[in-house]
Amino acid sequence: MKMVIVGGGKVGWNLARIMLERRHTVSLIERDRQKCEKLADELDAAIFRGDGTNVAVLEAAGTQDADVFMTVTGSDQDNLVACQVARDHFHAKKVISRVNDPRNIETFRVLGIENTVCSTDILTKMIEQEADLAHMHLIATLNQGKAGICSMTLPSNTALDGVALKDISLPRGTLVISLIRRGVLTIPNGSTILQAGDELVAVSEDKSQKALMRALAEVTH
Could you tell me which of 1, 137, 196, 217 has the fewest CB atoms within 10 Å of its CB? Predict the structure, then answer.
C-alpha cells in the first residue's frame, strides 16, 4: 500500500518505520528542516519538507494516489485541516487522524473524520475500566472505545467450576472467544465445561463489561 504520513515526530517516525518494515510505500511530510534531514538519514521513505495542510505539498507527496492518509502531528487543528484536504480535494481512500485532546474527538467526527486515534482517551478508558473491573483486564479497545476485548481468570473458588458455558447468563453484547487452560488455547462453544483457573477472553460492548465481570466473578461461599 502507498501511505502518506503528516508529522515527523516520534509518532510519525515510528509509524513510518513499522510501515516500511511491512513493505509499504511511505511518504512523510514534516515542516521542520532538521527533522527532515534526520528522517531522511534514518528512514527509507520519501521525505517532503513543508506544511501538511498545503495542497501543493500534499500533491508532491502523492496524496492523490495514497491508499491511506494519516496525520500524526501535535496540532489537532493541523491534523483536522490536512485530513479534510486529503479527503475532499484528493479523495484519499482512507483518512486517519491522531487526536491529541480527547475533547476534540467529537469535533473531528462531526466534520466527517471518523477514523481517529487518541492515546490519551484510550489510556483513560483503560485506567477507568481497570479500576472498575478489578478482576477483569482490558486487552484492547474496539470501534473507538465502544467495545473492548477483555480477559478474566476464574478464581479457585469460582461457582462456575463444572458449569457449561451455555448455562451462564452472559449479558447481551458479549461473546467469549477463547479459553486458555494450563497454557493451551481453545475456542469454546456452548458445551465447553469451565474449570477454576481458566482464562476467558471475551468481546464485549462497553456498557456490558461490568455485567460480564459480575457473571464471571461469581464465587462459592
Answer: 1
Identify the sign of the CA torsion 110, 111, 112, 117.
negative
Q: Is 181 exposed, middle or buried (0-12, 13-18, 19+ CB in 10 A)?
A: middle
Judge whether 78 and 97 are in contact, CB under 8 Å: no
Position 212 confidence tier, pLDDT thresholds 50, 70, 90: confident
Digit-coded pLDDT (tens) for 131-177 = 444 467 778 878 777 888 988 888 888 899 999 999 998 888 899 99
Q: Do the beta carbons of residue 140 and residue 148 sit within 8 Å?
A: yes
Say if strands 147-153 and 136-142 run parallel, antiparallel, or are unpaired: antiparallel
| Chain centroid, CA 1 distance in Å | 20
What type of residue is 179?
L
Neighbours of 202 (CB within 10 A): 23
Q: What is the pTM of this model?
A: 0.59
Residue with cell 502531528: 73
> What cell does 71 get?
496525520
Alpha-carbon gap, residue 178 to 203, rounded angstroms: 10
Alpha carbon distance 218, 74 (integer Å): 45
Instruction: State the DSSP code for 39.
Output: H
Q: How far apart are CA 197 and CA 183, in angstroms?
A: 11
